[in-house]
Design a protein that fits this description.
- This protein is of the alpha/beta class and about 200 residues long.
- Helices cover about 40% and strands about 20% of the residues.
Length: about 200
């Protein structure tokens, strides 16, 4: 059991899918938008998902039309989606939206987001902030903690074994989004750092 929900994005091989599910990840994120790097096809996603159980299946999208996202939600059996852009019309499932760090630091912007997203995401939403540094100053930590108290805030990016517990204690996010990787060759993958993060979060 992990102390906090963890999702893993960029799943594109069976090694990652089985390992992350076995380590207690709550969900696996598959890049289904063909315009994004390392995207997988719905067919490949279905094959990989067929080998795991007990995890949520999510799709990641950028500028795909909402109608296409909703179609893939049905086709792939997605429970949630991770979006890089704010959609123009409501989605059929709960969504995680990537936003700028600066937006979550601004108190006025936080209130605007909370109000705007309620109508765009009727099935529920969370906000994803991608950290580009393993060190956050105190002011940024406090601002993120205030955002996390306002709506579900997920942290992604520079999450390491050395800072994950500090972020957990100071920000108290809804969860962490880690990144998968490529196999060295079929069936062979180095999980050293990913394993260290999972182990740090074990109860």
């Amino acid at each position: 059991m992990l102390r906090i929900p963890v999702l893993v994005r960029g799943i594109n091989n069976l090694s990652d899918a089985r390992y992350c599910a076995g380590m207690g990840a709550d969900g696996l994120i598959f890049t289904l938008d063909p315009t994004l790097p390392d995207a997988v096809t719905p067919t490949l996603m279905g094959e990989l998902a067929g080998w795991v159980a007990g995890v949520k299946l999510l799709g990641e999208f950028d500028a795909q039309p909402v109608s296409e996202i909703n179609r893939l939600v049905e086709e792939c059996g997605l429970q949630e989606v991770l979006l890089r852009q704010l959609p123009t019309t409501p989605l059929s499932v709960a969504s995680l939206l990537t936003v700028n760090l600066a937006d979550t630091i601004s108190s006025a912007q936080r209130e605007e987001m909370a109000q705007q997203y309620t109508s765009v995401f009727p099935a529920g939403f969370g906000v994803v902030v991608t950290l580009d540094s393993t060190h956050l100053d105190i002011t940024t930590q406090q601002a993120l903690a205030e955002a996390a108290a306002r709506f579900p805030l997920w942290l992604s990016g520079a999450i390491t074994p050395n800072n994950v517990l500090s972020l957990l204690d100071t920000v108290q996010p809804a969860g962490f989004i880690l990144s998968g990787g490529d196999e060295i060759k079929p069936g062979l993958r180095d999980f050293t750092e990913l394993e260290a993060v999972f182990e740090a979060l074990e109860e």
